[in-house]
Amino acid sequence: MAEQVSFSRTLFNPEQYKKTINTGFSELVPITGLTTSSTAPPNVNEFFIQYNNIFYNIPVVGVTNSHEYLVQQSAAYIGLDLSPDNVQDLIDEITQLREENLELQQQLFELSNTLTPTTPVLNTINSNINV
């Protein structure tokens, strides 16, 4: 038993369509909610002025929008390796240089204590050199 169904549709000519149907999106998003910025992005000097003004408001750590993120992005841009191995190598080198500096200061102290007002400087220096 087949039943016959009738459909009807109304066609508009293009001019009547534009007058009848609202094709804008004003019903979905309120116009007051839209913000358009006609200002240009800041130049480098203005950027750093703004950056300094909000410096302490920026989170220290975070995947984005943080000091940690800025350091990682800047390090990658300038080719700086911040890997833990590289940092540890630098810490080891600093430790070694501090130890060498301490040894040299001790030698200088010992040399300055071996000199007396009556001891000629050249004789003291020559006696400390093994040839």
Give a quick precis of the structure:
With 131 residues, the chain is an all-alpha fold. The chain contains five helices and no strands.
Can you tell me about this structure?
The structure is a single chain. With 131 residues, the protein is mainly alpha-helical. Among the domains are: 40-80, no CATH class; 83-131, no CATH class. It contains five helices and no strands. It has helices at residues 14-20, 44-54, 67-78, 84-114, 121-128. The longest helix is centred in the C-terminal third of the chain and has 31 residues, at 84-114.
Please tag this protein with its features:
mainly alpha; single chain; 131 residues; 5 helices
- Rough outline: rod-shaped
Instruction: Please estimate the helix content.
Output: 40-55%
Mean pLDDT: 80
Radius of gyration of CA atoms, rounded to a whole number:
39 Å
**Largest pleated sheet:** none
What is the chain-wise order of helices and strands? HHHHH
- Low-confidence runs of at least 5 consecutive residues: none
Report the strand count: 0
Helix-strand blueprint:
Layout (H helix, E strand, L loop, with lengths): L13 H7 L23 H11 L12 H12 L5 H31 L6 H8 L3
